[in-house]
Amino acid sequence: MASPFLDNPVDIGAQIVQRALRRERVLRDKQNPLAFSDANLHEKYRFSAEGMLYLCRLLEPHIKNPTRRSHATTVPQMICIALRFFASGTYLYEVGDAEKLSKNTVCRTIRRVVIALQRYLNTFVVFPGHLPTVAIKEGFSNIAGFPRAIGVIDCTHIPISTPIKEIEANYLNRKATHSLNVQITCDHQCMVTSLDARWPGSMHDNQIFENSSLCQRLQEGLFDGLLVGDETYACQSFLMTPYPDPETTPQHDFNMALSQTRLKIDTTLAVLKARFNCLRDLRVSPERASQIVGACVVLHNIATIRKERVPDEYYLPHDDDDDVDTINRDHPAGRAVRDAITAEYFSDHLNNFA
């Protein structure tokens, strides 16, 4: 019933209803997004509650909204939004629907979190790793007896949106799809120890390596140890690759030990993509894709350090998943080091891993 003491009782009634609905929405948005079981959080975000609280503390100085408005997105909400996108790789509007936020809010939030995570790239991704070099060598040696290894290297293709016409051809890979060719090294614990995500899909793995800062630092002798790679790389004094045509038992044993050691990079890439499904198809420009890859690598290393649960299913790449063009330009110094390692560690009277 309309009140005779109000000039416009209909407008007042509408305002009351609007305020009631607004209060209800605030309560829904402000609920604790971490108040779920770890199993639920892992499925949605790939982190436990403790892990997500750690990310909140780490990133809060860089992503916190300066406004005190009651509807401002909170830091836990922002972390959930970004992790939901990284973990699912779904469209932004679907992430928004799941988190009860608009697509524009989701887009801005993901961008802010990606930039914040990029700040920590050189903190969490270091070569040859966070452990002492001696411990890294021992960790690799325990796999199959391969000596002096301080890292394993490979490249993987990350699909992206079609770039602008001026550069489109550069990003066409050998499967005629657009991608980044991302170079990654890892240690024996599947921690990413270096990342180069700036090259187009048409670039060959070996070409990327020879243009990388990691290669330059290895050439300068800054590290005591060897990288391990497959036949897509040229054998160098600091990068061991398989014998292309092994003729003796020690050479076969060398190749076997190298292959088993190399599995660490296959596992690392498989777990990385299983944790963050967005890396299976980034519908963004090359520059944005490179930044998202960096953010996911930082998160992967944080998850590894904190011993977060590894996805239940991940699949090692098949030979035809990446660039398999072989390189036959082994350096003389690389061949000499390879032969010396074979003679010292894989001769019949010394080999304990045959």
Give structural notes:
- 50% of the residues lie in helices and 9% in strands.
- The protein is an alpha/beta fold and 354 residues long.
- α3 (49-63) crosses α4, α4 packs across α5 (92-99) and α5 (92-99) crosses α6.
- Mean pLDDT is 87; it is low at 23-30, 319-323 and 349-354.
SSE arrangement:
Layout: H1 9-29, H2 38-45, H3 49-63, H4 75-88, H5 92-99, H6 103-118, H7 121-124, H8 133-144, E1 149-159, H9 165-168, E2 179-186, E3 192-200, H10 205-210, H11 213-219, E4 226-228, E5 239-240, H12 249-275, H13 286-305, H14 332-345
Question: Which ranges are low-confidence, i.e. pLDDT below 50, for 5 or more consecutive residues?
Answer: 23-30, 319-323, 349-354
**Quaternary status of these chains?**
single chain
CA-based gyration radius? 25 Å
User: What is the H-and-E element order?
Assistant: HHHHHHHHEHEEHHEEHHH
What structural class do you assign from the helix and strand content?
alpha/beta
Strand content is 5-15%
Give the overall average pLDDT: 87
- Count, helices: 14
Biggest sheet layout: 5 strands, mixed
Helix coverage percent: 40-55%
Distance between the termini: 92 Å
Strand order of the largest sheet: 3-2-1-4-5
Total number of strands: 5
- Approximate shape: globular
